[in-house]
Every structure is written in C-alpha cells, then in structure tokens.
Amino acid sequence: MGRAFEFRKGRKMKRWAAMAKTFTRIGKDIVMAVKEGGPNPETNSRLRAVIQNAKAANMPKDNVERAIKNASNKDTANYKEILFEGYAPHGIAILIETASDNNNRTVANIRSYFNKCNGTMGTQGSVEFMFDHTCNFRIPKEGLDAEELELEFIDFGAEEVFEDEDGILIYAPFNSFGTIQKELENRGIDILSSGFERIPQITKKLNADQVADVEKLIEKIEEDDDVMNVYHTMEENEE
C-alpha cells in the first residue's frame, strides 16, 4: 500500500472525518461551485461533485436545494479560498485551507491561533511544497476489482487505488480530477463522494507531550468557522 492508503488510515482513526462543521463546509462548497459554474449540476461538474458529497454526508436534499437557490442570489456573499501556512511547536508544518467572505478577519484569527499556541505563521509557499495536492474518489466496490481498476485508470492519472470497508478509493494528482470524474461517469460508475487532500511527503514522530502541544493548535484552528481543512506533518497515531 502507498502513502495515500496510510494517510487515509491515519486520519480515519482520528477526529478529522467527524468534524461537526460538515454541513457548513458543504454549504460553502455549493456557493463557490454555483458562483463559478451556475446552478445546474448537469453542466457544472464541480457542483455535481459537491452534491454527491452532500448525499454521502446524509445532508437532507431540501438543504442542498435551498443552498443552491441561495447561492444563485447575487446578494449572497461569495467565499474566497485562501491557503495559510505555518509551523506548530516542535517543527511540525501546518497547512490550512479556508473559505472566507472576509479575508482580514480570517488572517487575524489564524495568526492569533499560531501566536497563542507557540506556533509561527509562515509566508506563502513556506510549507505547501511539503505536501502533495491530491484528488480522490470513492466508488462502490460491488462488481469492481480495485487492482483491475488501478491498471485501467493509470492512463487517466490514478496513482493509487485501494479498497476499504466503505468502497474503493482512487487517488490521483489534483489536476487529474476532471479527467477521472468524466471517465467514471462515462462508464456509469457511481461516485459516492470525491474531494481533495494534501498528503505530507514526510512525517515527524513526536512524544506524547509534544503531540499535545501540536493538537492544541490544530484544535483551535479547526474550531474556526472559516477553516475547511487542516493538514500537518505530525505522524498519526493509530490508537
């Protein structure tokens, strides 16, 4: 198994997937998708992907439809995606994806979290290079073989395909998203969910006290309403 498998396994063991802000994040994704490509999912591939993710997260259909309708209103605030970079204590690189309608507020908040937790907010490009920007798709495993699928989808950019209890996962570089999405749809393969992740190229093992220091900063950042995802180079424990 490769790095994507290990990364996914480590994150699954922790609280990441259970962040209470899932519906809020999906709502922002809907707004950004509609503002970018319109409210029709048949002609807007980004919106199509967000709706699939909403379904996977058990977001009520009425909520999705209402979010699409609201996003179509020109008075609805638009969200800008901003990436923040920095270091937690003990040399752990932190990469933060945000979606904000007020850049000044978000910058001030993120800076305060680093300052309060003995971290250092970095400049653009200071840690981003330490992470591989990837896309991923989850599809049903029924009638499909992960190894065969991997061989078939190498030509479309897939780098890693593996099975877990919830289906088959396909990982590829960020810029392969559209190509793989189109091929899965052409083959009539249901996409249960899809998204993007930043996988650390190397990780650093810390002792329990050091882990607590880093966790304190990560938890503060994750609580912020503008934060969509947080990635780091600390080695994940599987307990």
Descriptive account of the structure:
It is a single chain. The chain is an alpha+beta fold and about 240 residues long. The strands form 2 sheets. A 4-stranded antiparallel sheet has the order 3-1-2-8. Helix 2 (about 20-35) runs antiparallel to helix 3 (about 45-55) and helix 2 (about 20-35) crosses helix 4 (about 60-70). It has 8 helices and 8 strands. Mean pLDDT is about 90; it is low at about 15-20.
Rounded average pLDDT: 91
* Approximate shape: globular
Order of helices and strands: HHHHEEHEEHEEHEHE
Number of helical segments with 4 or more residues = 8
Q: Given the helix and strand composition, which structural class is it?
A: alpha+beta
Largest sheet: 4 strands, antiparallel
Distance between the termini: 20 Å
Helical percent range?
Answer: 40-55%
Percentage of residues in strands: 15-25%
Radius of gyration: 18 Å
Please state how the strands of the largest beta sheet are arranged side by side.
3-1-2-8
Number of strands: 8
Low-pLDDT ranges: 15-19
InterPro entries: Integrase-like_N, TACO1_YebC-like_2nd/3rd_dom, TACO1_YebC_N, Transcrip_reg_TACO1-like, Transcrip_reg_TACO1-like_dom3, YebC-like
Domain TACO1/YebC-like second and third: 79-234
Protein name: Probable transcriptional regulatory protein AAEO59_09455
GO molecular function, one term: DNA binding
Features:
8 helices, DNA binding
Structure at a glance:
It is found in: Cytoplasm. With 239 residues, the protein is an alpha+beta fold. The protein is 41% helix and 23% strand.
